[in-house]
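Section 5: illustrative case.
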């Protein structure tokens, strides 16, 4: 019964999931307008066995798809959400949020992959939470002590 309800809810939604080989998988209920929109994306592919579409995975493809179809029409796999949405919670320390966003921008400029950026930002976030401070003000001795704590854990 529960599965039937979730299938009914998803029947009118476009689902975006990670695909294979640097692609995004699109599960779309048939609608001529939606299919035309997908066909307008360079590199789109139809997968007849899986009955789904895929598009190349790029830095801002998820945002492009959400804006193309409308936020209320799209369900995005959480792992595909932008880093700040998945990493930074509402109500966090504004200084920490600002630091993580600035760090993410720097990592992007240096060409780091999304998963690498997420890992690095996650480490800085946990470090800051452990000390309850903005990590920029902490000394090297404090950072070393934290790393030793992690090694012992």
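Designed sequence:
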């Amino acid at each position: 019964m529960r599965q039937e309800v979730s299938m009914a809810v998803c029947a009118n939604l476009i689902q975006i999931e990670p695909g294979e080989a640097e692609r995004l998988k699109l599960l779309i209920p048939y609608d001529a307008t939606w299919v035309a929109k997908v066909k307008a994306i360079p590199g789109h592919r139809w997968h007849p066995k899986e009955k789904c579409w895929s598009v190349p995975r790029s830095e801002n493809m998820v945002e492009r798809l959400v804006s193309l179809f409308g936020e209320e029409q799209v369900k995005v796999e959480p792992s595909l959400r932008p880093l700040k949405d998945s990493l930074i919670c509402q109500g966090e320390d504004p200084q920490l949020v600002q630091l993580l966003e600035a760090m993410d921008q720097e990592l992007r400029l240096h060409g780091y992959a999304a998963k690498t950026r997420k890992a690095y930002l996650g480490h800085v976030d946990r470090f800051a939470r452990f000390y309850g401070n903005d990590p920029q003000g902490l000394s090297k001795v404090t950072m070393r002590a934290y790393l030793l704590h992690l090694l012992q854990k």
